[in-house]
Amino acid sequence: MSVACLGLLAAVLFGVVVAVLVHVGLPWMRPRLDPLPAWVRARLVFALVAAPVTVGVALSVLALLPGVAAALAPALDHCTHHDDHHFHLCLVHGPTAINLGRMSLVLGVIATPVTFRVAYAMVRLLRGHRLLWALRRSARPSIADYDEVAAEAPFAVTAGLWRPRVYVTSGLLRLLDGTSRAAVLAHEAAHVRRRDPLTKLVAELLGACHLPTTRQTLLANLSLSCEQACDEAAAASIGDRTAVADALVKLGRLVSDACPSQAAVARFGEGSITARVHALLEAPKPAPWLPSARLTLATGLVLATLLSAPLHHVTETVLGTLFG
Fold first, then answer.
1. Which of its termini does the chain have fewer beta carbons within 10 Å around, N or C?
2. Residues of the chain with pLDDT under 50
3. Are 184 and 230 in the same domain?
């Protein structure tokens, strides 16, 4: 079996470990995430959603680096220090034969539920695209920041992945006074700037690698965080937090019931209305200190340098024990 295939297998196993760690640690993390500003919480929750895939792949790449380095610089070849029965994950010496039956069983058990969840997410994406095309067909051409849809059902949504657009029905516009209209449109404009429909779709796909309860909790938290971040943006735009809360109280449930949840769509009434209103009635939360991109990159490179060799040996040992 090729080193690339074993690297993929290692990424899957690392992803399983990360998913279990997030599942176990989530009850501890949630109380520490809740006090953060919504935009920070949304980023951190998205990172947790993506962790099994991103961290699993990153750890697999790190585990493969010493084997790749040995091919580029023979002096770095470490395989000669092992006995002949050691499982090799190396381009020079090649991996040892692996138990394909056992490997297929493990991958099948892991991949089956993930495949079903990804398939369901794609079905929701198709439904979202049908809604988007229906909105585009019935929308009146507009040079404003939103398109008016000739429909009595009152809802406001941001739909589309690469170039999201705000759609507001004529039924909702008739219900809005000037302040509420400004609050709704400012909220949806924030969804456009943040590209929340794309974020939620990617999170739904990546979240397929989590355990079911963890996936549901993280996706719900991400949705609420995105909505609260847009509420904060709307409040800053119109200069009145109470007005946004009032619009939520009057229209949130009405809008939510009129437009069902779909992938690649963000709705004004999504998430817990009660939690969103309470957050708006509180004072804005100060932004915490976050490391710069350069500091994060430098830290990552240092950790990669320190972890690569021991992680390589651990991966060889685990793969050899499980599938050798």
1. N
2. none
3. yes
